[in-house]
């Protein structure tokens, strides 16, 4: 029987079957508990804000409409503030100490924040939200880099896509936990303590599952730890350290990093890293990456993630239970779409095509005054967003940047992501009160702009090795998508033509 998950390799680029075994999937799954922390928080806080017990404890029950909007904005957006600084500082730490330890430390910080949120004081709730945001911001920045640097090129999109699958599963749990506690637990401290306490589960599992995992082989090579890199690569590829495939891949990584060192110098300070980040051949990738993060937020998804009960209430789903139920269905739709994207589509259809298809179906805002029609539009939006702009910006950022500046570039782009997310989640309660359905028109217009951007400027990167991204985004390649893709195809074909007939090993890129 044909394997429905199998992908076809290009001639001359075949890898031993052991490379696609369980180990890279185990690594992606272990690290992606970090995205489960992110997903659960994105979902549970909006529903918890609407629980009667939470509103009573934190002064929302008797507040005016305007005061309630301000307090809700503050409670939600302090998370984004913490995530912004967590991303920025996480870069410095991950560059110095490695990917793995920073992911583990971020989970510990997250759990400290969850403890403070359980106490029931507004000031400690704010501090706790900042710390959980800090943990998510740091881990979410490192996670796609870590997985992409450990993944075989053929299934890199699928493995980084585990990030989004775990996020969406946790998102669904967050929505439905609130629904069940509202239905089955009387309005007491226990009612809101349960959804807050569930935060400990993904954070604890992240620490436990990451301990036996390897460090990124590419980070180890960048620090001159070649022996450790060979050992780590040997484990993740399930091949002996002296296997020709391991030696070839390790040689390509060394060659790519040596080229970066020759171009930039071996001794670097933070100022020089900043200059490299915006040097010719790199700055275009950075601009594309952070632009995708901006469009991801301004298509409006986090407005629904964080305030879905409020939005469903505004279009006719009155009552706490009805709003939470509609929110739970929204989460399931988005989860199913994300699984389809990560498992079957991203490495087959490609990043660019999914962005164009998904963006085209995100444009319809819920304008109908009839509640059922409006909520249907939201579910259609969730389906196509889950297939496209949900995960691809994170994957694109993690795979296109050179190794020497990958962490710095990802940190910069993720900080932009958290900044724009902060703007959206802080503004939304006031937008719903002030401009009503104009809120959805605004997000629809942003989706149109996202399609135009993807069409003209985003090249296809599926199945392209990380060390081959320079062929797409080289210093002499124009940023327009079609030109970049044509440049890669021409150089790739030239390299394949130079395969040594005796050894069957592709010559190094420097000989192209």
UniProtKB/TrEMBL annotation:
Task: Provide the membrane topology annotation.
Answer: Multi-pass membrane protein
- One MF term in the entry's GO annotations: carbohydrate:proton symporter activity
Please, which domain of life does this record's source organism belong to?
A: Eukaryota
Task: State the compartments where it is located.
Answer: Membrane
Organism of origin: Paraphaeosphaeria minitans
Keyword set includes S-adenosyl-L-methionine: no
Q: Which GO terms describe its cellular component?
A: membrane
Recorded hits in InterPro entries, A to Z, give: MFS_dom (IPR020846), MFS_sugar_transport-like (IPR005828), MFS_Sugar_Transporters (IPR050360), MFS_trans_sf (IPR036259), Sugar/inositol_transpt (IPR003663), Sugar_transporter_CS (IPR005829)
Q: Which residues form the Major facilitator superfamily (MFS) profile domain?
A: 27-462
Spans traversing the lipid bilayer:
75-94, 101-120, 126-147, 159-179, 191-214, 324-346, 367-387, 407-428, 440-458
Name of this protein: Quinate transporter
**Keyword annotations of the record:** Membrane, Quinate metabolism, Transmembrane, Transmembrane helix, Transport
Q: Which NCBIfam families match?
A: SP
Which protein family is named in the record? Belongs to the major facilitator superfamily. Sugar transporter (TC 2.A.1.1) family.
């Amino acid at each position: 029987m044909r394997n429905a998950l199998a992908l076809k390799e290009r001639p001359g680029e075949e890898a031993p079957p052991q490379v696609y075994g369980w180990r890279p999937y185990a690594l992606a799954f272990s690290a992606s508990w970090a995205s489960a922390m992110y997903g659960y928080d994105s979902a549970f806080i909006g529903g918890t804000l609407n629980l009667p017990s939470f509103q009573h404890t934190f002064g929302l029950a008797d507040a005016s409409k305007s005061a309630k909007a301000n307090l809700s904005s503050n409670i939600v957006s302090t998370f984004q503030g913490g995530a912004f600084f967590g991303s920025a500082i996480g870069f410095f730490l991950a560059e110095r100490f490695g990917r793995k330890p920073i992911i583990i430390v971020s989970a510990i910080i997250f759990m400290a924040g969850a403890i403070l949120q359980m106490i029931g004081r507004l000031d400690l709730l704010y501090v706790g939200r900042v710390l959980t945001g800090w943990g998510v911001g740091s881990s979410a920045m490192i996670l796609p880099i870590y997985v992409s640097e450990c993944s075989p090129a053929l299934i890199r999109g699928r493995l980084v896509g585990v990030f989004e699958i775990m996020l969406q599963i946790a998102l669904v749990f967050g929505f439905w936990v609130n629904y069940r506690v509202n239905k089955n637990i009387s309005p007491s401290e226990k009612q809101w303590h349960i959804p807050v306490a569930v935060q400990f589960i993904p954070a604890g599992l992240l620490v436990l599952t990451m301990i036996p995992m390897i460090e990124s082989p590419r980070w180890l090579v960048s620090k001159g730890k070649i022996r450790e890199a060979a050992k780590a690569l040997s484990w993740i590829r399930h091949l002996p350290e002296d296997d020709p495939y391991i030696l070839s891949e390790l040689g390509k990584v060394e060659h790519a990093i040596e080229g970066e060192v020759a171009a930039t110098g071996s001794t670097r300070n933070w100022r020089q890293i900043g200059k490299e980040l915006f040097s010719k051949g790199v700055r275009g990738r950075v601009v594309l990456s952070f632009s995708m993060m901006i469009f991801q937020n301004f298509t409006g998804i986090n407005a629904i993630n964080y305030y879905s009960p409020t939005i469903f209430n505004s279009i006719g789903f009155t009552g706490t239970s009805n709003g939470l139920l509609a929110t739970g269905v929204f989460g399931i739709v988005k989860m199913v779409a994300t699984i389809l994207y990560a498992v079957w589509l991203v490495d087959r259809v490609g990043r660019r095509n999914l962005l164009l298809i998904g963006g085209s179906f995100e444009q319809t805002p819920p304008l109908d005054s009839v509640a059922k029609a409006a909520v249907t539009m939201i579910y259609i939006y969730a389906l196509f967003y889950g297939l496209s702009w949900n995960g691809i910006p994170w994957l694109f950022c993690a795979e296109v940047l050179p190794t020497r500046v990958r962490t710095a570039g990802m940190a910069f782009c993720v900080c932009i992501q958290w900044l724009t997310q902060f703007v959206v989640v802080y503004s939304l309660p006031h937008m719903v009160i002030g401009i009503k359905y104009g809120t959805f028109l605004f997000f629809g217009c942003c989706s149109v702009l996202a399609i135009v951007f993807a069409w003209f400027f985003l090249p296809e990167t599926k199945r392209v090795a990380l060390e081959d991204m320079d062929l797409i985004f080289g210093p002499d390649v124009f940023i327009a998508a079609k030109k970049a893709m044509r440049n890669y195809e021409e150089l790739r074909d030239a390299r394949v033509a130079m395969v040594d007939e005796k050894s069957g090993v592709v010559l190094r890129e420097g000989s192209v």
